[in-house]
What does this fold into?
Amino acid sequence: MVAVSEGFSHRVLPYAGAEELLAGAVPFLRRGVADGDRVMAVTCLGTEVLLRDALGGDAAGVEFVRADSWYAHPSRTMADCLGDAEDAAGGGRRLRLLGEPAWTHRDPLEVREWQRAEAMTNVAFARTGAALLCPYPVRALPAAIVAGARKTHPETVRGETALPNPGYLDPWTYNAACDTEPLPPPPPDAEELLIDVVDLYWLRMLVGDYARTALLPDDDVQRLLVAVTEVMTNAIRHGEGPIALRLWTDPGALVCEVADRGRWRAGTGFGLIPPRIGEPDDAAGPDGGGRFGLWAVRMLCALVQIRTGEAGTVVRLRLKLPLRVDGRLSTHSG
Amino acid sequence: METLWSVRRSVRDLRPGDHAWLAYVNQEERRHVAGAFVRDGLLAREKVVYLAAPGELIPGVVGLPSADLLTVVTMEHLRTEAGACGDADAAAAMRALAAEIVAAERLGCRAIRVTADMTWAVRGPGGLDRLMACERHIERAVGPSTTVTAVCQFDQAGLTADELASVGATHSVLVTPDPEFEDSVLRIVRTFAPRGLALSGELDASRHMVLSQALAMVMAAGPAHEVHLDLKNLTFIDLGALNMLAEVAAARASGGLILDRMPAQLRTVVDTVGWTTLPGLRIGED
It folds into this structure.
């Protein structure tokens, strides 16, 4: 048996049924209650009922949070959870979190981002000393998601035993592997603008008009304008012309991409790790556009896709479009 | 001063025939605006006539301008003018300044700037009524002039709201500070109560430098004071500017940087990005 170490841990708990789930989760949570950790269980309602029953009186020492609201957005969830972990560490405690990611109702792009977030968790939380345990229901999930979890979690838990995952990948290697496939090309009717004026005021007018026509809500229009300004500013400063801005709508999403001929240098952090205040970028990578630029862009958009290589760099921003009142997904008519 | 004023002009936009008033909130604002008025005049080699309070250093004066360019009229001078009639009053001030204007015109000056802080006259002999009569007289005299620009200064704290409104009504123009920066996208104007800058338009990387310079000026003028940014009319701010403001705030040992009246759409952005990533930024009044 491997004792739970006092340092950071991020483990996957694959389970086939309630028994296996409880065999791993209950000792994990009990240990936290006994140690005076801040103990959280982020699960669906069914799992919460099971855990409360199994924990008995110890359930009072556990904060239960519903998974579907907790796992709302990869970057925002990571920021909030990291804040909790740092607050706990600052108070001499440890954050101990049982987190059952919500995989259902996710499209493949979202699944990819949550998997990426699992990998980056190993970098972002390393110095908080947090103990993170992620149950994966092997029968309910596609095999690829369970297999992916063994690449993003350093260890697997069975009962009270933790064993190293032989397939575990360095988080940055995993991240790069997520982005090997080229992005699908923009549709032929995408709006395209070659940027030759440096004043982004005009660009924002164009993007704002397009987004409002596509019925993007006002708050999201503002988020998009800030995000595209940031990405474009980076491209102007560090990229190579010509710089193209393209806008289109996919079913349920407004897409805005900035493409240039430059290639990001190795070690770029891609904005995947929250910036640490008062410290130079290290793990977060040299984001070029400022300490928190790309990180903030991820926070502002539903999803950010980046490809950089010989052919140049594309940063694609996606924001969700609301369902129209007629029940169909809105699409931009041009 | 928030009024529905018919004509508002910044100092640099004043022109001959303007009889303008400045209702200042404090000496800093008075010296800022009057100083710009004097400085612009002297640099353009225009005649400047300044009615000075006892012991006052004339704002906006660089070096030692010749008496041909700058004439300072003192209160002692006014008392001499008033002679047997008693204390200096608004009428005496008007006569003294008018005499200087006539003298300057005789010398061939094509542009003459006149400015005086007239707050004292409200409590002087004849009080508000005599001041108003004089102001109306000046309005009639300056209005058609092609040479004279006049700025009458009043301390908001020295007059009641009614008195201010009455005095203001006798002027055709309200003078405002020159913007620290202005183009078609962004405008930055000094504010004095609270101290700081009012931003309107959009702020992104193209204009970080001008904001940085304007902020540095305000901060240098009062290192220990809080600096407020009035964002009411700012419709866009980029991440770089937010980051810059956070760094300026964090670097300031005393006297913070406060963001007042931040529009909801800008707040949405900062809320989404997270205030914790921008330590030092403080939200002021709505």
